[in-house]
């Protein structure tokens, strides 16, 4: 794989979703010989609201957090993977993305999709969207229950932007490594087109022409990379719905890959506004890819 993740940071709590995220991180770290850091953040803002009712709640949260990290560390060491553990205090979405990720030179953050969802279990689920929004590196949001197995069916959404190409390259490298079947897709947003004041029926024809060329270019590059099972297709509708729900279900995808921001212009199809919507709607894992810092504007 040409795009190894060197430093993986997995955000954990005590939920089943968090354990799935941890095991995906463990699997990737083992395959890529990555440095794996597992972090648990105690959100004092929420706990402080209950301290008058439960005076020992902060102390208890700390003890439970240390126990939790020891459990994860023991499983990693049993799998032959050395890890670092970190416990911090504050707002998880900011601590993870703005403090711990830069400190560990992180190039991939992994988080569960929903988390424990209770105060006593520190509410990682409410944080995943914030991590996707604020991270400066790639983010993998994990939903698959079989988190230790290879990805078998992947969807890579493209729009032609630099960040989309970067996401495509990472997705194809991962697909080749895991021998996955891949659908490369570009979704033309007809909802946005029909709302334009100067809507021109000929625009759809031009968009289809451009999209066809774009998909063929990507398909050829995927084949040249050694990928054996690849399809490329144009779809129509609201991209975040089509990619996450329609295509995710139709292709039984276990991973969707797309860029974080895309082109962000009306005439170039709006992939950038789609990434968070896909994370919210997808029933499978979603990898959101960002350009390296030196390439971001």
Automatic annotation (TrEMBL):
Any Pfam family hit: Usp
InterPro entries assigned to the protein according to its UniProt record, in alphabetical order: Rossmann-like_a/b/a_fold, Universal_stress_UspA, UspA
Annotated UspA domain residues: 5-143, 151-290
Family recorded in the similarity comment: Belongs to the universal stress protein A family.
PANTHER family listed in its UniProt record: STRESS RESPONSE PROTEIN NHAX (PTHR46268), UNIVERSAL STRESS PROTEIN UP12 (PTHR46268:SF6)
Name of the protein described by the UniProt record: Nucleotide-binding universal stress protein, UspA family
Natural source organism: Marinococcus luteus
